[in-house]
Write a structure and sequence with these properties.
By secondary structure, the protein is of the alpha+beta class. It has a single domain, classed as Glutaredoxin, CATH 3.40.30. 30% of the residues lie in helices and 29% in strands.
Length: 157
């Protein structure tokens, strides 16, 4: 059964690059932009992360918390955050349990090879903990602007 807008977002508790545990339930009252990406310091992931970085102030102004999730460990996240000057948390989902709960982990194909990995998906979770918007098979570069536009549209009466 696929997750749909209106569904209660699966709760999670994941460590960030500094070892602090981030729980979705602790973020109630704020919008959460939860984006899943394949791997730190790869070209597409850099473009996507930098898009969120460059518009971070706009996300904060929209009362939205941006969280990136991959299977990378804290050391890898720390390097990525430092190198790209990311102002938001990257969460360590080393066993892909949260990615699986969000239907963002599975069989991928690249250059004729099949492997298990994270799909580039984003979930906008409302202040009530329900999924407001789902973006699947995201294009990295324009994505942050696309999410911001939908946040702005949802704020308009």
């Amino acid at each position: 059964m696929a997750l749909q807008p209106g569904d209660l977002a699966p709760d999670f508790a994941l460590s960030d690059a500094d070892g602090r545990v981030v729980r979705l339930s602790d973020l109630r009252g704020q919008r959460v932009v939860l984006y899943f990406y394949p791997r730190d310091n790869t070209p597409g992931c850099i473009k996507e992360a930098c898009g969120f970085r460059d518009r971070h102030a706009e996300f904060v102004a929209a009362n939205a918390v941006v969280l990136g999730v991959s299977m990378d460990d804290a050391k890898s996240h720390t390097k990525f955050i430092t190198k790209q000057q990311l102002p938001f948390a990257l969460l360590c989902d080393t066993d892909a349990a949260v990615a699986t709960a969000y239907e963002s982990y599975g069989l991928k194909k690249f250059m004729g090879k099949e492997y298990m990995g994270i799909f580039r998906n984003t979930f906008v979770i409302g202040p009530d903990g329900r999924i407001e918007q789902i973006y699947r098979k995201v294009k990295p570069e324009p994505h942050a602007q696309e999410v911001l536009a939908s946040l702005a549209a949802s704020e308009t009466p």
